[in-house]
Amino acid sequence: MTQDDRADKFDIADERVRVDLLPSHPLVEIAKVLTHGAGKYGADNWRRGLEWRRYYGAVMRHMLAWEGGEDLDPDSGLSHLACAGCNVLFLIEMARTRPDLDDRFKYKAELIGDSDVKVRYLPRSPLQTGGIAHGADPDTDS
């Protein structure tokens, strides 16, 4: 079969997203994490959303366990990397669909002199309650 015998398809030229570039094995590993979660909490429970820092905390716990030499999550028996990846996907989706659950500490770096940087904490979101006062700097305010 020559190039002339094949059908024309202009999907690359029009800059469509190349989902064929995604590696399939990691996607299947993340799907295993979702399958485990569906059995525990319900298939689409995650879509209801959580405060973003809950997802971030899960990502960090899985990454720290993996960095410490533990490959598999003891609760699920699944890859810590896949569990972390799943929570990163959740965060990406929450950023798109649930900005109301954004409870990150916001800050802005400001230059002081030639090379010093001061971090100024911005007012906290309504979701953040207790602990540090709104707009407080946790390094200087108590």
Automatic annotation (TrEMBL):
Residues 9-104 form the dATP/dGTP diphosphohydrolase N-terminal domain. Pfam families: dGTP_diPhyd_N. This is dATP/dGTP diphosphohydrolase N-terminal domain-containing protein. It comes from marine sediment metagenome.
